[in-house]
Write the structure tokens for this entry.
Amino acid sequence: MAVSKDAAVNRPKTAHADENTPAAKGDAKSKGIAILEGLLGRESAPVIPLPERRNKIKPVRKSDWKARWLKNLRWRHAIISASFVGLVAVPATLASLYMAFIAADQYHSSTSFAVRSIEGGVSSDILGMFTQASGGSTVSDSYILMDYILSERMVAAADRKFNLEDVYATRGLDFFYGIGSDLPIEDKLAYWRDMVNVNFDHASSIMEVTVKAFDPRKSQEIAQFIADQSDSLVNSLSLSARNDVLRAAQDEVLAGEARLSKARVALREYRDKSQEISPEEGAKLAVQLIGSLEQQLTQLNADLATAKSQMSDDTPRIRVLKTRIESLEQQLAVERQRLGTGERTSAAGDHNSPDVAGRIAQFEELETEREFAERAYTAALAALEKARIEANNRQRYLALFIEPTLSELAQYPTRLVNALLVILGLLFAWGVGVMSYYNIRDRA
């Protein structure tokens, strides 16, 4: 039976065997028994042959691999390669060649200065005079100066003096760094800001100006011109600030002087009209005069009483005494009227002169106004002098401690750095474009 099973197992299969026949069913059963015996570890378990594959893997030849690679290479790869050549390789090569052989040499001139104030403590060393921290006003003046250097006003002044189109005219084939002709002020300002660099250190208030030009002498002359114009601006700002500080004090002095002059004129007119220096002194004299008249009147009344006791009323002596008493009484009445509420020259018919009390009140008012005007004028003068001292102490000046230098070696343009920057910029732009394309393609 084992021989029959082995024969059944080792019998070759035909491709057109009918699986539904009894022989096929027996063979399948025999295979199942053989597999079971193999699992149980019996030695008589037959080896089950694996079915042969109908489609065998054929070895890939080199010519077939090249054909498949050429087939998978699509048109987008060609476009990407062409874009790299056109957008990166060619422009980078042209830029490098331009920087190496066409770009003209540029020379620089540097100058350093600071806006300083007279006020403040004195530094112990020379370096501290320029590096000590300044007040907020000098910092604001420094920013004003920096904006002025890079302004249209400075460009116009430099153009009138040097003719920028001649100084920065195109050298050879270098049209990139040269300036054009018949340009508006806005284009000249943009070119000026490319050739003039201003660096301001807020900590030390030091401003460094670097000027580039195709000729070293011209760069030095332009830097010196910028320093001179900056000095003029700082001086004008200082003078303007000084005048602003003094203007208010000067106005107060002028107002006080006008008021004092007016008070003095009014007091003089009063004295000319009243014909007396001070009504108070006149009142004192009037009181003394009234006292003297009363004393004389008292003496005459006593003499009259004595005479009446010895003589009759018709005697000449008594008549003379009575006449003198009447005259003294009239004079005493006039003086009392002038001292009280009467008129000074009422007997003469002048009713425009006030009494002594009225004149004293009027004089005191004028004198008070004069004294107040004098004090106000004195205070205004003191304020003006103080303002003048403060204004002198707050004056600004330009401390130029590095004169414009004369370059002997052209350091601009930085050819290698500019070429590398162009290459990196082109690579970055090209890479962003390619990544954006693949991102959109993958999402689509």
